[in-house]
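Raw record, unedited: Late embryogenesis abundant protein LEA-2 subgroup domain-containing protein
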Amino acid sequence: MDPSHDGKGSQKESFSKGSSSHMYDDGPPPMAAPPNTMYYSPGMGYPPGVHAPPPHQGYPPGYAPYPNDYPPQQAYHYPAGPYFSNPPTYHNDGGARAFVRGFILCSCLIFTGLFFATLVLALLLHPHLPVYTVNSLSVTNFNISTTLTADWNTTFSIQNINDKLNGFFSDLKVDLLHKDDMIAVSYVSDFAMDKNEVKRFDVKPSSNGFLFPSWDLDNMAKEKESGSITFVLRITSMVAFKSSTMSTRSALVLALCDDLKVVFQNNTGNGALDNGGKPISCQLYI
């Protein structure tokens, strides 16, 4: 028997033909896949079937191109109002400020220099107060009744101990006190003293015109009965010192010369200062 005419072989052939006619005759052949654009590079042109875009034709008629400085710059104006009719203007005052700072700095330097110069002169010159001493104090015709009558005579000295400054004295007043009560007064005219000069003054305080308390008169009478009375001499004046380069302001100088013991001779009205011939120094107050 021929195997080609076997039933099995006929069946296989007819199946293969049936399958082929079904795969190719029932529809259009499959289309080729488009090229992969992932691997497209410039210069190689566009792939088949892809059309290039039309060239740039510019702006259509009737349209103006945009300017390069879009948007255009706008000028700002200050609105007119009730306070400013014109825009505010600014001035550079740096020069004026620099001038003011320089002026203040120069003034501070000048005043500082003057202060130090005055301080150095004061330290170099260093004015000293004068020295007051009482040389003598005497009384004649001393009498106490309803009032006090007496003739006083006192001598005191003033020494200017400055060797670079001259002294100027004004309104010099000499008061004689007993227990803080004034019993006689005298005045001295204004005068000047050279460097290291000593002046001696003889004054005669007067008791005329004074009203004395009765208790003070009684105390003086009791002291006189013991043989002596203690008095106080008070000297006040305005003093200033000057040189060719500086001067001091006038100041009130008070000299108190206390414990002046006047001894009366043989219970009479005549008495003199008991100081043993030595000047008595006075205490100074300003």
